[in-house]
Amino acid sequence: MSAAGLTSAPAGGERRTPRRPTGRRSAVTFEQANRRLRWAMLSPALLFVGAMIVFPLVFTADLSLTNAFGAVNAAKDHIGPTNFTDALADTRRFWPALGRTVVFTVGAVLLEAVLGLALAMLLRRPFRGMRWVRTVLIIPLLATPVAVGILWLLILDPTNGIANHLLTSVGLPPQEFLGSVGQSLPTLVLIDVWQWTPMMTLLLLAGLTTLPEEPEEAALVDGAGAWQRFRYVTLPMLLPTLATALVLRAVDALKTFDLLYATKGPGGGSDFEVETLNVYAYGLTFDYQEYGLAAAVLVLFTLFIIGVVVLLRRRGGGRNA
Amino acid sequence: MSTSSQPPSRRSFGRLIAGGAAGAATMALGACAPGGRTPASGTPLRIMAINHVWSQAVRRRLGEFEDLVGRRVSMSLLTADQLASSYNVKLNASGTDVDVMMVRALQEQGLFAHNDWLADLTDRVRNDADFAWDDFQDAPREASVTAGRVLSVPVVTERPVLYYRKDLAEDLGGVPGTLDELEAASREAADRSRGVFGFVGRGQRAGAVSQWSSFLYSHGGDFVVDGASGIGSPQALAAYEYYGRLLGRTGPPGATNMSLEQAMPVFAQGKAAFYVDADAIYSSFLDPAVTTPAVREAVGFAPFPAGPAGARPHNIPSWSLGINKFSLLRDDAWRFIRWAAGVERSRELQSEGIPGARTSVWEDPETLRKFPPELAEAMRVNASRGIGHDRPRVLQVGRARDIVGRPLVAAVLGQDVGPVARDAHAEFGEFLVRDNRHKES
């Protein structure tokens, strides 16, 4: 019997006290117990989320409104949005750092998308030695960014590195690479591309294997060339996967810190040439101990990342529709 | 549909999240709260130190100290950046898991004192006649004192020395005694097309400031003059321009990315005629694993050359020992410092080629036997002329070095130094005002 049936008025307008069915008390008790059990089962995960995500976020947001300096637990005053206005008015470090963050992310992700898509198309059809090629392809992914940074630092050392040795041996002029103010950011974009293109390839390859073959076969029968089949058949069907891959890589690239710090050190180099928002916030925290300002920069950075993700998701969603 | 399968309401979910966050905050703050705790039996004395020859030599002798104190000792060796970041994280949480801290008195001590992270050692050093506090050299001893309190004990000192290639210097008119001679000889030696450089040195914005300080002093300047910025003075400008010419025109490519780790191998591999850096790294040039045979046989050591204001190198305590204010083993930590920085140990370590801070040890010729004679003489001369700081003496040394280093980078890159120096001068002036405000807070 339904609960509604128990409380509905009987025909003829006569109101009668509904009779409690047998077992009602035990059913409620069971529901209560079930509800408690549900919270009990959820509570470890919720406690983890509270301790590891909510608390740090709230703490950082609160810290960003203070003049905390020297030690986080030292006496501090709440100074309103001063840190935010200071950061947004800082044309020497904050805005250039934001610009470099965008340049690094856009440059790296676009190159990775193009190269990753090209490699995925090449690896799409089975061929002899495919397993070997795929294994070799993921090797850069296995290395930690710090190890990758040090490896490339040694290879690209202007004086003792093997890169300039190779360049000069074929008659090309030596380059300063990471030692140069102008070449550092493009060089780091290329190192990021070297490391993360395989991930883009694997993601897109997974997407390609799920695509139906009929539309492409139909296009082939209709006389479409290879480029036309890719441009008008494969790529539109792959767009949802591509959008997801772009969001994942863009968020990752925006947060890049270890590679930049391992190769250029504090402040992103002598002329701040690779100082992104992450590197800037780290410097404010660990080199300058300006925790209030650092927290404000991190809050702005988080909002920026959320904005980028929302933008990419909307554009990706629009295309999917 | 059973109500038991309905998801938690928004309100109850929010309550639970808030409760969880509050609980986590309480736990975190509870864990951070200091006071009233005693160490568990068997707790080791924990030392955090820089990965340096001094620390390695002390670690080899730890068994002796463990027998003396009756407690196990754990010693972690880290790079300077790692060490600074570790202190930052641990001490911000009032951590008790470090007892003895190896610190750079001129880099971190001011800020740590401001944060009240270092135990006051004043009574311990002054009331201990055997420790002979007055035996420490003046400059390192003064650097150990902040706001009238002794907060660290110097164990390693350092001065800049001119490393040079004897085989090349002979053809270049001998060992440069002045900065002008150094520049002329470096220009003559430099041949970039053959991968040979006249001079190599640090060029990173902040990293180069400490070595550049001797060039600044020898041009008659200082970072701070009468409480105001000194980096816009004609002397500072001349020092910036000189260093820019020397390293930018006669040094290796990519010099602005060079700190000790990048510059030292260039000299060790025989690619530069002259190199100015800390005397504490001399053993690298005698080490077959680091240096080519040609350089090992031909490396020479000379005092810092004289500039327009004479030869005025720095002589600083590069590394000191302090005690974590939150340590539960402060007495044993002091016993370690007393043991490691005492007269006996200082004599022993300096005899192994690690320059210490004790006057009596420096006066004992036996302790200098391990050093090449030319280096020992250069160190003695530099120490006698030395200035007790190699960076601005402020709370936020990191930010100060970033500001002071900007014109240095511009000079090395061959840019017009004047406008950059004027801009940095104004920024440094504003910084000093803020830094003083922090000091007073």
From TrEMBL, chain A:
Keywords: Membrane, Transmembrane, Transmembrane helix, Transport
Compartments, as annotated in UniProt: Cell membrane; Membrane
GO cellular component: plasma membrane
Database matches in Gene3D superfamilies: MetI-like
Name by which UniProt lists this protein: ABC transporter permease
Membrane topology value: Multi-pass membrane protein
Annotated transmembrane regions: 39-59, 102-123, 135-155, 291-312
Stored CDD domains: TM_PBP2 (cd06261)
Record Pfam families: BPD_transp_1 (PF00528)
Region (Disordered): 1-27
PANTHER family assigned: GLUCOSE IMPORT SYSTEM PERMEASE PROTEIN GLCT (PTHR43759:SF1), TREHALOSE TRANSPORT SYSTEM PERMEASE PROTEIN SUGA (PTHR43759)
Membership in a protein family: Belongs to the binding-protein-dependent transport system permease family.
InterPro entries associated with the record: MetI-like, MetI-like_sf, Sugar_ABC_transporter
Residue intervals of the ABC transmembrane type-1 domain: 98-312
Top-level division of the source organism's lineage: Bacteria
Coiled coil: none
PROSITE patterns: ABC_TM1 (PS50928)
GO biological process annotation, one example: transmembrane transport
From TrEMBL, chain B:
UniProt cross-references to Gene3D superfamilies, sorted A to Z: Periplasmic binding protein-like II
PROSITE patterns with a match to the protein in the record: TAT
InterPro entries linked to this entry: Bact_solute-bd_prot1 (IPR050490), SBP (IPR006059), TAT_signal (IPR006311)
PANTHER family: ARABINOSE-BINDING PROTEIN-RELATED (PTHR43649), DIACETYLCHITOBIOSE BINDING PROTEIN DASA (PTHR43649:SF12)
Annotated protein name in UniProt: Sugar ABC transporter substrate-binding protein
